[in-house]
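Q&A FORM
Asked by: J.P.
Topic: structure of UmuC domain-containing protein

PROVIDED:
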Amino acid sequence: MDELAAKLECHRDLRRDCVHIDMDAYFAAVEMRDDPRLRTVPMAVGSMAMLSTSNYIARRFGVRAAMPGFIAKKLCPQLELVHGNYDKYKRESAIFEAIFAEYDEDVSMGSLDEAYLELTAYVTSRTEPKTFVRRQYGGECICKLPLTAEEEATPSSVEVCKKCGKERKIYEDEVEFGTSRAEVFLSKYGNGFSWHSIDIKRKKEDRRRKKKGKEENKNP
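REPLIED BY: S.T.
REPLY: Here is the structure written out as tokens.
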């Protein structure tokens, strides 16, 4: 594997900037937006025959996309099933597509919640430093998930989430496109934007173990 990685590194071409966007639990997110009650209960979009997606509360019980609804009900008896409204999902997807087109007029939508963009022209046209804003919510915020690791970042402000009352810290990172600093930022934080809840849970558990280890070393 190391040998293969080395070969790929030799031929890596960083002259083009391409982005793949996959919206997380898209159908469920739209339904939870329209019915806030669904944000705090296990729910899935679909029918007893097949599920399209589920929210993260339902996933804790093993409920997954492409699972028959009757099996999901056995795993999670309190699961709320919402019938899909594909006309509504298409309308929302069109809004996202219009936004993506501002950055790449040839954006390719792989599905209602998936897009492929080439940002080469956009990135090369921006020579001024760009400030990235990252938000982290303290506790289990049901509105948004933590985006990135923030050990080395300094919070610039603290807010409170209006929907669930959780504390929200805002961090800022200034990155200049076309420089090595941009590559370092993406290599360090890029994968953080696609963390799933299980990854976040593991991250928290790792931090607790490290903190506990430091305390034990201080007090042998």
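FOLLOW-UP: Helices lie at 2-10, 26-34, 56-59, 69-75, 86-101, 120-124, 180-189, 197-218.
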